[in-house]
Amino acid sequence: MAPLLEPVWSALLDDEAPLAAVEMPGPRGDSGPVRALVLRDTDLPLVRGSTGALHVVVTGGAGQVAGPAGLSRRLGLRLVGLDIALRDRDDLAGNARRVVAAVDQARNEGVLGDEVAVHVELPAEEPTHGWLAAADEVAAAELRLTLRAGHPDDSATPSPSLLAAWIDAALDRETPFRCTGLRPGAPGVLAILIATQRAFDGAAREEVVATLASVDSAALAATDLSRIRRWVTSIGAPDVETCLAELRSLGLVP
Fold first, then answer.
1. Residue 233: which CATH number?
2. Of 6, 21, 61, 158, which residue is 20 to 30 A from 227 by alpha carbon distance?
3. Beta strand pairing status for 53-58 and 34-40?
4. Which residues are registered as beta bridge partners of 120?
5. What's the number of domains the chain is made of?
């Protein structure tokens, strides 16, 4: 019998590898460490016949929320999450309200199931008044946030200080979030989980930033993480096997 997976590691990682680099996704997310395959809404026809859990990134605006959900149903796909980015920097709160309205309409019409987690990605910038007001709208609607921990362009990858500010904003609003874009140079899986727990426990911002910047996985692995999955719903990476290899080397994942 295979060793049991602790709840903290179950359905933790989102596979953000380019679609051409992955096999047709099979069942996942029920008991293993990988939650879902992340893909763009325009790629949904390419995974027709898949039985795996899918997390879809909406490439259009708020008015495009219902489309991918409806297409997933018609193709018989298992949709577990949607991501939609706010792009109206002049009115982020209004943009967030439009997303909330579109989600509510899609749910009321039966196109988007209540079991599908909707995440809103705010711009990768300092939390201004408008940024925080948009986060308030997301929290009030009981949606979730997506925080971009890394970016293919290293110059656009947020600093640990900026990521810590976003985590604080999510926790202040009791809003669960997923992190996306885990890449070399970005905080690792353990660093994100532990930094979030320390922020939740009231640690000083400097300690949270230092945790996000840490590369000492062995030291981080000694931390009790049993409470933090209430807030960190998943972490996306383009190379989940490397993430899993590190967790296995530390004895965290069988």
1. 3.20.20
2. 158
3. parallel
4. 84, 145
5. 1
Separation of alpha carbons 190 and 36, rounded Å: 19
User: Is the residue at 251 inside a domain?
Assistant: no
Task: Report the distance separating Cα 160 and Cα 174, nearest Å.
Answer: 21
Mean pLDDT of 209-215: 93
Residue 2 belongs to a domain: no
pLDDT of residue 21: 62
Cβ-Cβ contacts under 8 Å for 136 (sequence gap 6 or more):
93, 173
Strand partners, 58: 84
Q: Is the pLDDT of residue 154 over 80?
A: no
127: tokens are 């939390």
Q: Which residues contact 231 (CB under 8 A, 6 or more apart)?
A: 170, 171, 176, 177, 196, 200
Q: What six digits make up the tokens of 209?
A: 């930033």
- Judged against a pLDDT cut of 80, whether residue 25 lies above it is answered with no
Q: Give the count of beta carbons closer than 10 Å to the beta carbon of residue 20.
A: 7
63: in domain: yes
The verdict on residue 250 lying in a domain is: no
Domain that holds residue 67: 7-243
Q: Is 15 left (phi over 0), alpha (psi -120 to 50) or beta?
A: beta
CA angle 89, 149, 136 (to 5 degrees): 45
CA-to-CA distance for 237 and 149, rounded, in angstroms? 10
pTM, two decimals, is 0.93
Q: Which two tokens stand for residue 228?
A: 């933090």
Query: Would the pLDDT of 244 be above 70?
Result: yes
Q: Does 43 score more than 80 pLDDT?
A: yes
Amino acid at residue number 179: C
